[in-house]
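sanity check this:
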Amino acid sequence: MTADGTTYGTVFPPGNGPILPDLGAREVGLERLRDWIAGLEFRRTMAPGQDPQRWRLPAERIHIHWPDDPEEAKMPAVAFLPGDTLHDSFGLGPASLIEESVDVYAPGMALVLLADYVERITIEVWAAHAAARRSVVAGIQTSMLLGDASSVLRLALPGYFDQVATYALVDGPGYFEETDAVRGRRRAQVLIEMRVPELVLVDVRRLQMVLDLGGVAAENVYDGAVWLDLGVTRFNPRRFAAPAPPDPEPAT
């Protein structure tokens, strides 16, 4: 809301309210990360003299949230643990309207960029055997560093207004040798930073300028800065010009 009490984004005539999303930027980013990990082909060390075994981690074993019963989770498995968060809003100004998105995702609506959602995510790996745990950790860590332009992983979000999420390796891996290891439950952690744009669809109206002549004759009127041709009904910047200099005084 502005200082004079006007709500940001108010238009006349009144339009529809913003289309609130069913998923936040966090869930969208984690779902895309899960799909990416499920697409990796890991290599597991086998017995001496045998080639490494190629395998994939099924998406149903990659948990966006902590599983309801970790003791019953099938292994190998991965879980995303929440961490410190930040809404990076690009300064103190209002949200940014993406003009090229007008009428693209919904008629009469456009995207507003609210902020970047930033969170440090811990990727926790569970495995029954050290070889499988080592395979997942090495595969994720190496794949995140293989970006063409930098060491940041960039993943397209086709179901989220065609945006791009970034994932940067922060720390790790950390291996944990606990008493559960003898029962076939070994853990490791990799810390990453995820950044996803936060967007919302809002109603927009094209600016339509109206000129009220107020009984003034349709003549050129000079307002001290530019000439205004009141005989036109459309705003035409080509008709704006500086006033002509006055005629010189006749010589005496």
